[in-house]
């Protein structure tokens, strides 16, 4: 796979995003775009007639919806029957565009939902999109992914293209798909085509739609890459090929590790700004005016979701197994893990300024989801923040119309406050502000700790 990429002249931008002084204009020619670099005479082949998407969570469902209308038959497979009922009833967390796609797909004969994994055998291509969390020790938990891949291998037939998108350690595609197919007696690259193409979905962000987000594909063979790219290009107008599944796997890990390091650094700079009496948002935006050499991030209460707090640990775990270390990544992840406790300590400081102790203080956290606009609690900093305040004796509450009930670490269940303006709070802690949710009442409270650094409606606010 050696072909020269042409710059993206349609909008004057180049496909690379590097903090390098102009070198991206030279290095972008090392990218291998599809279909310019199609392999083994597959140029001109049409896309798949049918695709099965295994796993219908925050990645799988938007993927299936994006395929609907571009592929004649799309089947979503999920072993959780309740999840399928929620999808059928429209009771799922989606952006407005995907919600409209779901409404259009519901009832369409070309869009099907099933709990039967055996249904994958009836499709030209299979895309695996199951979650890959970490356990309490921050070690990879591949329970769901192993089960899904085992089922796909067991039911696959000759001629299919199998694409793994779930983020994992380097070598996962080979371990869970390529080698099992070999043991089954199927030749990868001839009988079946296998590739890894990391998902790039940004939940709750309407600015990052799949069609406009480039994807990377790494196949077990050049023909595998070409066949997989034919599928992936139904999702995006820009597909780039790398030389192996392993290269694509590390690409995804590097992307999220970079984001993790950037966020850990942004929070550290915010703490420095607090010491120096400066506004970290002003400093970050000012640094961002430099057109090269700077890729900034904004500080906050911590890092949540299914990617950034988890994915770097997949690489760290893999390195530890062979006695290797990655000190910068390890330090960044420690900073991310420690951030919620830093917010709790700052809350204690704000209360102490008025002679109040955390114990007995009536504290409300605004926004429980891990980011604005989503109902996702996975790794949300709000959970350890609430738990940390409770451990210090605070009377804890929260307000989040998207999440009426939450469960804290340890099992304590909290019901959200429906009318927080009616209560005289000792401290309001701004964690996340959802679009369309009015929190103007918080500005009238005596003490406001703004962990977003953006709630300037309260002139008397304190920041982390």
Automatic annotation (TrEMBL):
Record carries keyword Oxidoreductase: yes
InterPro entries: 6-PGluconate_DH-like_C_sf (IPR008927), NAD(P)-bd_dom_sf (IPR036291), UDP-Glc/GDP-Man (IPR017476), UDP-Glc/GDP-Man_DH_C (IPR014027), UDP-Glc/GDP-Man_DH_C_sf (IPR036220), UDP-Glc/GDP-Man_DH_dimer (IPR014026), UDP-Glc/GDP-Man_DH_N (IPR001732), UDP_ManNAc/GlcNAc_DH (IPR028359)
Listed Gene3D superfamilies: NAD(P)-binding Rossmann-like Domain (3.40.50.720)
Coiled coil ranges: none
Keyword 4Fe-4S: no
Keywords assigned: NAD, Oxidoreductase
Domain (UDP-glucose/GDP-mannose dehydrogenase C-terminal) ranges: 364-457
Entry similarity comment: Belongs to the UDP-glucose/GDP-mannose dehydrogenase family.
Protein name: Nucleotide sugar dehydrogenase
Organism: Pseudonocardia hispaniensis
Classification of source organism: Bacteria, Bacillati, Actinomycetota, Actinomycetes, Pseudonocardiales
